[in-house]
Amino acid sequence: MTDGTRLATDVYLPTTGGPRWPVRLVRTPYGRVNYNREYGAKAELGYVMVVQDMRGRFDSEGKDLAFIDCGWGDNKDGLDTINWILAQPWCNGKIGTEGASAMGITQCMLAATDPPGLVAQYIAVAAPSLYHHATYVSGALRAALIDGWLTGAGFDPDNMWLTCLHPFYDGHWRKLNSIAEAPRIKVPAVFFGGWYDVFLQGTIDGFVSRHNNGGPGAKGKQKLIIGPWGHGGPKADLGPATPMGELTYPPNSLKTPFPCGGDAWFEFYLKGVDTGVEKVPAVQYFTMGAVGEEDAPGNEWQTADNWPVPAEPTPFYLHVDRSLSRKAPETANGRLAFTYDPLDPVPTRGGCLLLSWNEYGTKRKVTSGTYDQRDIEQRPDVITFTTEPLAEPLEVTGRLTARLFVVSDRIDTDFAVKLTDVYPDGRSMNVTDGLARCRYRKGFDRLTPLEPGQPAEIEVDLWSTSMVFGKDHRIRVAVTGSNYPRFDVNPNTGWPAWPMGPTLKAHNQVLCDKEHPSCVILPVAGK
């Protein structure tokens, strides 16, 4: 690298053709030697495969600080690697990058340096902004993801300290936000993700930023593929369908109607072979529906030219009788109360997760996807709001938000929201969820304490989905104070959740009246 650090790099050359070939680059924190069989085979497709250990990882020199040196900071390891490749006698001047998860993040950081020779990328299940899509969501630390990943992958403990020392969106995180650098990016890319992936919103935001605001060569040339999958993508090896938690989506969920795989993508952009990928619709997304119901609407692929697709932001209001409807409240002084105890948090069950674990306080194994939430909804610290059975199907496609008017007796607390699809048999299956840390309600770069006892308006980002709620199904919204370990527990003191730190119970209220019309805003597609 420019600063003299040496990064361990393997080069796989094709055994035929040459002497110059296009190059496919992968930069990984997981040990390059773990991929020798896979990338050795790809070299036989007529590419030079270059696989590199990130700085400080495995056989590479330097300090192990995840992604800090991959982009446009003091060190530019991705750019330096591209320049090294271009100088090699086996490179024909065309380079593509690929990889999922962490290997996708390195691609996002690299693209913003506008490297010479880079002509295309294939980015799967990745976070283009490390603050907004990976580490903190609405100011809350993604505890299971960050602690679990850094610890499980054996990263230097300084990574966790850096995370804790930068709870705000500040200069540290701006150097790890490729979304803001979209105008500098000049290459086409595929963004591949899943509705239950831990980086779902990052996949969507990465596509949107480049497709609409990218530089020449990037704008209008991105592809987005979203299926009913978790972080591992479609699992055809598990059978002829897609298991996601306690639901299994039908066989058509495994493959997109217009194929756009990595090999076809690079055959076109690196070799000039017409594989049809350029003509693939910009957006392919799977609209989920009820599982196990004959002729249920949904469970089909749709296409679009851009994202979001046309939809009408439609408020569904929370009422003091625990109903949920499109009619706004007309009563005065309607409110519902619950007590949030940080020492007894509401457990995470399904959703957009990375790792699996035993559910908090139980031996139940939890993974990404959708699970029946009924026993969680019976807790005294969970308030639910439910529609009447739907008279006709309702498609919801796009970004969802809960707008709540709340009161607390603490200067800070959390409000967690979950949207579920209630089947006619009573199962309440999670669709999306989110959490808002109240002290960040006016920006992630500042603190705005609550005034105890006084109403405050907050927004809870529920990320995105595409879902048809079937006839006779009901839509439910659950509101509570925690969702652990998906998000760290708020001690309700105004301070971070330091280990062994003090905690306070928070007595919280959700206002549901004419003056304070709390609601969830659903992007209703079609009608």
Q: What's the average pLDDT?
A: 95
Proportion of strand residues: 25-35%
Count of individual beta strands: 26
The CATH topology of one domain turns out to be Jelly Rolls
CATH architecture of one domain: Sandwich
Rounded radius of gyration (Å): 24 Å
Question: In CATH's first tier, which class of one domain applies?
Answer: Mainly Beta
Structural class: alpha+beta
Uncertain runs: none
CATH superfamily of one domain: Galactose-binding domain-like
Summarize the structure.
This protein is of the alpha+beta class. The chain has 10 helices and 26 strands.
Question: Could you explain the architecture of this structure?
Answer:
There is one protein chain. This protein has 527 residues and is of the alpha+beta class. Among the domains are: 1-124, Rossmann fold (3-Layer(aba) Sandwich), CATH 3.40.50.1820; 312-524, Galactose-binding domain-like (Jelly Rolls, Sandwich). Helices cover 16% and strands 30% of the residues. It has ten helices and 26 strands. It has helices spanning 36-43, 77-86, 102-111, 130-135, 143-152, 158-165, 171-174, 200-213, 262-271, 374-377, and strands at residues 9-12, 21-28, 48-53, 91-100, 118-124, 136-137, 140-141, 189-194, 223-227, 242-244, 247-249, 283-287, 300-304, 312-318, 324-325, 335-340, 357-358, 365-366, 383-386, 394-408, 414-422, 428-437, 456-469, 474-480, 506-511, 519-524. The chain has a nine-stranded mixed beta sheet, sandwiched between helices. Strands 14, 15, 16, 20, 23, 25 and 26 form a seven-stranded antiparallel beta sheet that branches. A hairpin with a 6-residue loop joins strand 17 (357-358) and strand 18. The longest helix is centred in the middle third of the chain and has 14 residues, at 200-213. The protein is globular, with a radius of gyration of 24 Å. The termini are far apart.
